[in-house]
Amino acid sequence: MALNPVVDRVTDRIRTKSRRTREAYLSQMRAAASDGPQRAALGCGNLAHAAAACSPQDKKLIAKGGGPNIGIVTAYNDMLSAHQPLGPYPDIIKAALAPLGATAQIAGGVPAMCDGVTQGMAGMDLSLFSRDVIAMATAVSLSHNVFDAALMLGVCDKIVPGLFIGAARFGHLPILFLPAGPMPSGISNDEKARVRQLFAEGKVGRAELLAAESASYHSPGTCTFYGTANSNQMLMEIMGLHLPGSAFVNPGTPLRHAFVVETARRAAQTTALGAEYIPFCAIIDERAIVNAIVGLHATGGSTNHAIHLVAMARAAGIVIDWTDLSELSAVTPLLARVYPNGSADVNAFAAAGGVAFIIRELIEAGGLHADVTTAMGEGLHHYAQAPSLKGEALSWAPARSGSGDPSILRPARDPHAPTGGLVLLDGSLGRAIIKVSAVKPERRVIEAPAIVFTSQKDVLDRFKAGELNRDFIAVVPFQGPKANGMPELHKLTPPLGVLQDKGFKVALVTDGRMSGASGKVPAAIHLSPEALDGGAVARVRDGDVIRLDADKGVLEVLVDDREFAARAPREFDGARERWGTGRELFAGMRAAVTSAETGAMTFLLEEEEA
């Protein structure tokens, strides 16, 4: 199938606007690669330090420099269920490499926080910025220049984007990603959502809510809903940075163990020391980024990637924006219904055919660039295959011809919806995005008076007091990256859902985030420019009529232009919340951060400064 003309046009536009920064990036990577194995440039004292803690055999191999040395960057901790299974990976990796005459060292660790723990808490204000901390920690980890390839061990929301950004700055190396896989299914997502809403209505207590949450998040592995963490895994796969089929294999299984072993071997096989050199910078180009965007839309993935993918692409010299994302969404069919865009979890998605089915369908429909380089070599067709074990060895076979469950996964010729469901909103309030794949068509156009809130807590308090039983659009400004780090406002979903179910017309407008759990309530999020950066949302007052039209891509305040422009913006009153829980340490990041549409990054890359 010929490539969809819109996909082709958007790719060409990205290539054109990225020409200067991409060439500068590739020039840096070529210069780094030309030095050959980095250990050869180290003095004896430097090399002795690098190998001092190794076994005698590994010391000889590292000193000789004939076999590859693989750097491991790990986000392991045993508080996060998704990262706890990563603990034994380094030993498995080292054992897998030994027969190849290769070595591995843990190059460094990166922080990994859990948004599920920090939702609605002060620590959430550190969440988005943790991505850039992880990127810098990754760079520090690989800065010793003793590695011929690297493995990134991470899973969740900011961790994989941070690892990716850091890895991109060492793009002359082969770099593969290794996840842990989702935990086995617990209670259904529908049941979890039902109990949350009952709690919001005061119909069940904390004990019932905790029991439901604990039955959902119950064991090692990634949370099973299709939020940012699982969207990360799909992205790594469709961009060719996983081995095919890695994303959604449960931890602690023979198949998961085999993936760890084979990924280590593949990293060693693709270094500049061998005949099949496949560096990160050869895999990640404009086509790979477009494939990632298309995959995100086809699976109804996390809105957080309207920020993260922009930052990830920038780290490789590629410039994308929300116009690119929106135009690709309009021509990408929605092939998957996974919670919160359906009732199934990622285990059911994988069983129905998973990522291999999605990739095969999109290639055949002309929605993906199939002629890309991947960790498996040339061509995305490698990723239209499903994994299995033959003895202890990994094997792949073509993806199943039909969906194992059409309520979850459908072919491109008969999708759940004709578009991916992510829409760019533009108008007098600025630019925002909305995810409509779970929003009923009759709720995608809302015109109602605004109620301006000071915080997420303010919304919850007024809901509990019974003050919100009416049609309104909740406006929550000063939640952007410059104000407070752009926390997720996930706790707004249950109360607004209750009001919507009562028959009221409700929606949300904010310069904050709603995460991968954006669901049935229309939400214009990531509004840019943000309130603290001159955004029009700071001039909205109670009673102003706002029109949110997701069908036409419009977000506007229906107030006379001259009157609106003459208003003084609200003053930011959240400065008192910038200390405690370490938030005071991030003042420099708040001051330096770019807009949401430019990736909410806290550092400029050298090629952007040139």
Account of the protein in words:
This protein has 610 residues and is α/β, with parallel strands linked by helices. The chain folds into three domains: 5-34 and 67-184 and 219-398, no CATH class; 35-65, no CATH class; 422-578, 3-Layer(bba) Sandwich (Glucose Oxidase, domain 1), CATH 3.50.30. Helix content is 37%, strand content 14%. The protein contains 24 helices and 16 strands. It has helices at 5-17, 19-33, 44-51, 56-64, 89-97, 115-118, 127-142, 159-168, 189-200, 206-216, 228-238, 254-269, 280-283, 286-299, 305-315, 322-330, 346-352, 354-364, 456-464, 481-484, 493-501, 561-566, 587-592, 606-609, and strands at 69-74, 103-109, 149-153, 175-178, 373-374, 377-378, 385-390, 393-398, 422-427, 430-435, 445-452, 472-476, 506-510, 523-528, 545-549, 554-557. Strands 9-10-14-13-12-11-15-16 form an eight-stranded mixed sheet, covered by helices on one side. Strands 2-1-3-4 form a four-stranded parallel sheet, sandwiched between helices. Strand 1 (69-74), helix 5 (89-97) and strand 2 (103-109) form a beta-alpha-beta unit. Helix 8 runs parallel beside helix 15 and helix 9 (189-200) packs across helix 21 (493-501). The longest helix is centred in the first third of the chain and has 16 residues, at 127-142. The relative contact order is 0.11. The mean pLDDT is 93.
